[in-house]
Design brief:
114 residues; 44% helix; Glutaredoxin; globular
Length: 114
């Protein structure tokens, strides 16, 4: 089973869901707003992907919190991810023992339909 984490109104999340539907793949969607992601889940993801892959530096939340000015360490970034879910790059997909961050059709093709 594929689990997609994100928020409903995110374009990348919508693309991932559309991909799953168009390829007849079964998935479960977890909305960050309805089911907050805890530190344990983030730590598990960080065992599979780097903090820079998971930490969203391009979003409004990052800018509005002025985190760039703080020059955060990896540990501080992880702490921010645990308390501010909008800093998590979306979507995050779990599939078997893999974690895939962001929408990338080529990666999805290789992982899910290849």
């Amino acid at each position: 089973m594929i689990t997609i984490y994100g928020i409903k109104n995110c374009d990348s999340v919508r693309k991932a869901i559309k991909y799953m539907k168009s390829n007849d793949l079964t998935y479960q969607f977890v909305d960050f707003r309805e089911t907050p992601i805890d530190e344990k889940k983030i730590a598990l993801w960080l065992e599979k992907v780097s903090i820079d892959t998971l930490f969203n530096k391009r979003g409004t939340t990052y800018r509005s919190l002025k985190l760039k000015e703080l020059n955060l360490s990896d540990e501080e970034k992880e702490a921010w991810l645990s308390k501010e879910y909008m800093l998590i790059k979306r979507p995050v997909l779990e599939y078997h023992d893999k974690v895939i961050v962001g929408f990338n059709e080529a990666v999805y093709d290789t992982t899910f339909t290849g």
